[in-house]
Amino acid sequence: MSVIPVQYESLKAILPYMDPNTRFQISLRIPSISSLEKRIPLKIVNLKFSKTGMEVNGARYRLGVYRYSKDNDVSSEIQMSMLPIPHDIDEHGFTISPGINTVLPGDVDLRKEILRDLQNDSDRRERLLVQELRGLKKILAERWEYTEQDEFPTVPSYPEYRADCEIHWKKSSVRLIRDRINSLQTALEPFKHRRNNTKPPFTNWIQLTVTSQRRGLIQRIPYNKNLFEAVKILISTMFGKRSSIISVKNVTIDFCDYILRFPVKTKLRIQALDVLSWNASNFQEFSRIIDKSSFPLQQLMMKCGARRSRFEHVIVKGARTLIIDNIATISRPWIPILRNLTNRHLYLKQQSRNESHSHYVNFISSWLENERPVGTSWTGIMEEVTAKRVLIYLKMRPEVVAVSCNMHYVELRVNASSSLRVFYEALQPLDTKCLLTWRVVRSQIS
Question: Which is one Pfam family of this protein (predicted)?
Fold first, then answer.
């Protein structure tokens, strides 16, 4: 069967409708059409950035350092450690992070302070590993009556190890103890190489792993650059030097306090943004790569704790829908922050333990007093008992114009033309949590 090549004009017409990942592959494999592909507008539905790569419409691009060994005698634990790791490796096998504070042209600096390099090669860490290793071997010796010498120097005893680890391992199975011993021996290998001035029996490569529902792809190149430089090259190859703004429906950045590698002079036009623990300076820095036509955002998801400074930037205040996912371990009150937000739709995914039904009743009262526009709404996940108490108290207010017989719904007059409709519904059958919602609606009462 003969293959008819796609002509230039036909390809030009086809490219805008191709999946972005297919376009990337064609552009990389056929350099002669790379310039054409860069001139055609690129549209992406879901784009997610991570520290070592990105995800485009479900296809994941991950970079790591792969260690290859021809030695058949390498232990299974060491073989597992040869899988790609998201850190650079030095000559002895220690994981390192060069360039962790290096901001290249085009990059988005999301750091809150200077980042610390990995400290996994200290003498103290070696002593702790050796102490734990010898403690586990002693436990096995008591069960199996055997002894084994090692080549590590005598180390002082750390009381915190005996309190937290030895008691735990004495109750564990032999298999788990052996697995932990193998893991410790692998972690101690770099210390042995440094002490003996030797190198691990590995050849290091930078590995690109591409995974999607339809296929998987692995590519390796010589380890002659740092991992952060490889990430920069990957993202710049995909998104750099394009003639037009890249349109993205949803952007997710699943890290904070780090540097987002990004190409020079590239802009995104986005509709929704999902971020982790950002503050006002992070939003300001990120806005450099976002086209002004993106604002106000259709939706902003913030995974964070209740700190007022996180909600002061105009991007946060202007988002039409603001979704807050409370991830803080310390539960601070949310209502003082929520009172000052004027987004059209607010959604709080987790109730603060410090806020009772009375706090929400007062919060609703502020909506009645401030007369927000029709269509404005607030939704929060909370215990059903809290929502029931809120509606019981609202039922007694003089502004009430309608109440459902099952007390799941109350409507209160705001002014002559609008009302505030308050209701709750279960998240799942037999679930103790529910969704409490109030929405400003056009009044149906004459």
Answer: DUF3557
